[in-house]
Each structure stands twice: as C-alpha cells, then as structure tokens.
Design brief:
102 residues, alpha+beta, four-stranded antiparallel beta sheet, 8 strands, 36% strand, Antimicrobial_MiAMP1, signal, MiAMP1 family antimicrobial peptide, G_crystallin-like, Antimic/Inh_G_crystallin-like
Length: 102
C-alpha cells in the first residue's frame, strides 16, 4: 500500500522540478539588423560570449542579464537587462558578452 502512495508523490515532485527549470531568461542574438540572419539563444547562468551583434531580443523571466562591451564579461557592466521585462533592439549592438545572474 505504501508503494502505491509513494509513486504519485515522486511523480508530482518530478513534474514540479521540471516545471521550475523550464523558465529562464533568454538573450537571442541575431546576425543581422531587424532580427534577420542566423541567431543563437543564450540562456545559461554565468558568462556567455555573444557571437552575433546585428540585433537582439531579451526575454526576462527571472534572471537579469549584465551586458559587457568586452568578451568574457570583463571590464565594467555597460547595461543590465531586467529580470522581469522583455527588451529588444532592431539595430546593431556593441555588447560582446553577457552574464546571466542566477
């Protein structure tokens, strides 16, 4: 009888854990202006170098993004993207790296 009750409890825990992990802020870098060309999604915690600088979209879903004008998040933070708001820019961007705060 205990096994029958334990299985639904474990399944519910797995669903809750995976549902929580599904939401993360994302920085989408586009090769060209106006969200054109190749793109890459950066959503890992910590430092990521940005390969494309034509335009971007930010989906703030819990983590903020600190933007740097140099690779590897070195130097001074140039701008911070909000953890609870989306943002975008259709024209070229000078940022070279992002630090997603988790």
């Amino acid at each position: 009888m205990k096994k029958v009750l334990l299985v639904p409890a474990i399944a519910a825990g797995i669903v809750l854990a995976s549902a929580g992990a599904a939401y993360a802020s994302q920085y989408v870098a586009y090769e060209g202006p106006g969200f054109t060309g190749r793109s890459v999604v950066l959503d890992a915690c910590g430092v990521s170098n940005i390969p494309y600088h034509g335009s971007y979209k930010w989906y703030g879903d819990g983590q903020s993004g600190r933007m740097y004008n140099q690779p590897n998040a070195t130097g001074v933070t140039h701008f911070e993207l909000a953890s609870n708001r989306n943002a975008e820019q259709r024209t070229p961007v000078g940022w070279k790296s992002i630090f997603i705060v988790c």
